[in-house]
Amino acid sequence: MVEQFVGTWKMVSSDNFDEYMKAIGVGFATRQVGNRTKPSLIVTADDGMVCLKSQSTFKTTEIKFKLNEPFDETTADDRKTTTVVTIENGKLVQKQSWEGKETAIEREIEDGKLVARCKMGDIVAVRTYVKE
Predict the structure, then answer these.
(1) CB 126: neighbour CB atoms within 10 A?
(2) Which residues, by range, are in coiled-coil regions (predicted)?
(3) CB–CB of 62/55 below 8 Å?
(4) 72: which residues sit within 8 A by CB, 6+ positions away?
(5) Among 20, 45, 72, 79, which one is least packed by beta carbons within 10 Å?
């Protein structure tokens, strides 16, 4: 159920994100900004469409999609990916594929917090949000 994710979430911690950005090929300057940025995540769901909006002073990105249907995404670091979002075991799983690579962002609710695990190979970054 996507409903448990709906709301405005404020980032409170980000661990190993620099390593994750390196793993997906983000350049140094962009990583510097990415490491300093603490975006809010706004999740809405309406008529089968889900919207994930990442909002910060640096950049705001937004994707709208239907679960289980692939779509084209331009990521915050300007990768052009084919993305599909599914619900697996209560987690909102976003898989991005580009240039023969794949990464996954798994979001789940733990103790009332939204925990996003960004995975690329054996590198995992954990970003934690609290509901505003």
Answers:
(1) 15
(2) none
(3) no
(4) 80, 81, 82, 83
(5) 72
Q: How far apart are CA 75 and CA 72, in angstroms?
A: 10
The CATH topology of domain 2-131 is Lipocalin (2.40.128)
CB atoms under 10 Å from CB of 6, counted, come to 16
> Could you tell me the residue ranges of all domains in the chain?
2-131
Quote the tokens at residue 26.
Answer: 């983000």
Interstrand relation of 80-88 and 71-74 (parallel, antiparallel or unpaired): antiparallel
22 three-class SS: helix
| pTM: predicted TM-score of the whole model, two decimal places | 0.95
pLDDT (tens digit per residue) in 80-104: 999 999 999 999 999 999 999 999 9
Instruction: Answer for the pair 9, 114: CB distance below 8 angstroms, yes or no.
Output: yes
Residues in the chain: 132
Beta-strand pair 101-110/91-98: antiparallel
